[in-house]
């Protein structure tokens, strides 16, 4: 991702900011960025004694500033403060020491603050934006961005996939950068010296997420193929608890109904993400699937899901059988 490249560029030019704020939803990318930044300090001090990681729950901002001002035998120090809450509404800590430090930071120390989320209107955020450097770490949003990210990771590993195989890999492994990276590592080991990873490799090595299987199940329902849908359901139930499967089914059908309602009142795919509170890549998939299922079929499907939920929780029969009956009813022809 571009965030990692920014850090590498700073290291290459030896222009590391005296204070950073890193934040975002993607902890894997933040962790990767931190490893890159640490590598700079490990060059001159392989022992890592010039790197300090601080828990902000155990130190006040004044104590953190004191640590940042501490001189080291080695030329440079990295002080990492992880999971800070300084940028949230309602925090009551005295941040004046940090604000004062920003105006005159220790030139031999890089002070890195890491947060999950931030309020950009806060005084400390604005000060860092003006005097330091802020990097947001976010996962890819759209399908093409995910494909580009995976192919970039493959290039770094000396491997490649064509676009179709990459898309299939993402569908099977899910949309978490950390999980995808681990699965790529497995594929790299499996193919050995071979440069190109094929769709057959992916199908053999990469486990399919339950979310991907639910999509396939509903695709089968859309064409009223009860046999295909039940086959997919049985494959999922070998790995997942029936309640979890049903919960994901209910969520999926509700999202599909939301897309259906949005489309009927003149909305389009670009509105789905904000309207339903889901990520853009999922919004596009849900929208495309909603085109295959009628309003009546979706409403009936939700009703069957809820009836099955009651039966499962009240001990109304074998869970697998109840879910299969639900799918059969979901696939029945509509009565006009």
UniProtKB/TrEMBL annotation:
It catalyses: DNA(n) + a 2'-deoxyribonucleoside 5'-triphosphate = DNA(n+1) + diphosphate. One of its GO terms (molecular function) is DNA-directed DNA polymerase activity. One of its GO terms (cellular component) is DNA polymerase III complex. Residues 211-330 form the DNA polymerase III delta subunit-like C-terminal domain. Residues 20-136 form the DNA polymerase III delta N-terminal domain. GO terms for biological process: DNA-templated DNA replication. Keywords: DNA replication, DNA-directed DNA polymerase, Nucleotidyltransferase, Transferase. Its EC number is 2.7.7.7. It comes from the Bacteria. NCBIfam families: holA (TIGR01128). Belongs to the DNA polymerase HolA subunit family. This is DNA polymerase III subunit delta. It comes from Desulfosporosinus orientis (strain ATCC 19365 / DSM 765 / NCIMB 8382 / VKM B-1628 / Singapore I) (Desulfotomaculum orientis). The lineage of its organism: Bacteria, Bacillati, Bacillota, Clostridia, Eubacteriales.
């Amino acid at each position: 991702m571009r965030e990692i490249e920014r850090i590498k560029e700073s290291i290459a030019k030896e222009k590391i900011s005296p204070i950073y704020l890193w934040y975002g939803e993607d902890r894997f990318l933040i962790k990767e960025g931190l490893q890159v930044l640490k590598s700079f300090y490990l060059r001159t001090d392989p022992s890592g004694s010039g790197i300090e990681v601080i828990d902000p729950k155990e130190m006040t901002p004044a104590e953190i500033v004191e640590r940042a001002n501490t001189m080291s035998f080695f030329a440079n120090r990295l002080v990492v403060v992880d999971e800070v809450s300084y940028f949230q509404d309602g925090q009551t800590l005295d941040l004046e020491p940090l604000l004062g430090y920003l105006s005159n930071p220790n030139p031999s120390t890089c002070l890195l603050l890491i947060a999950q989320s931030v309020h950009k209107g806060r005084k400390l955020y604005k000060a860092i934006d003006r005097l330091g450097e802020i990097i947001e770490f976010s996962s890819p949003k759209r399908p093409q961005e995910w494909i580009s990210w995976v192919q970039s990771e493959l290039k770094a590993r000396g491997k490649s996939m064509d676009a179709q195989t990459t898309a299939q890999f993402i569908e099977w492994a899910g949309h978490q950068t950390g999980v995808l990276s681990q699965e790529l590592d497995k594929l790299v080991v499996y193919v050995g010296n071979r440069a190109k990873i094929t769709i057959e490799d992916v199908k053999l090595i990469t486990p399919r997420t339950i979310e991907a299987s639910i999509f396939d199940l509903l695709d089968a329902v859309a064409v009223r193929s009860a046999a295909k849908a039940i086959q997919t359901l049985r494959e999922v139930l070998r790995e997942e608890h029936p309640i979890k499967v049903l919960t994901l089914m209910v969520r999926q059908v509700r999202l599909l109904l939301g897309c259906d309602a949005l489309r009927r009142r003149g909305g389009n795919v670009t509105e789905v993400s904000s309207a339903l509170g889901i990520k853009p890549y999922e919004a596009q998939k849900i929208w495309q699937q909603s085109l295959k299922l009628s309003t009546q079929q979706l409403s009936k499907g939700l009703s069957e899901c809820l009836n099955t939920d009651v039966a499962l929780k009240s001990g109304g029969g074998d869970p697998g059988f109840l879910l299969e009956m639900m799918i059969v009813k979901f696939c029945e022809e509509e009565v006009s």
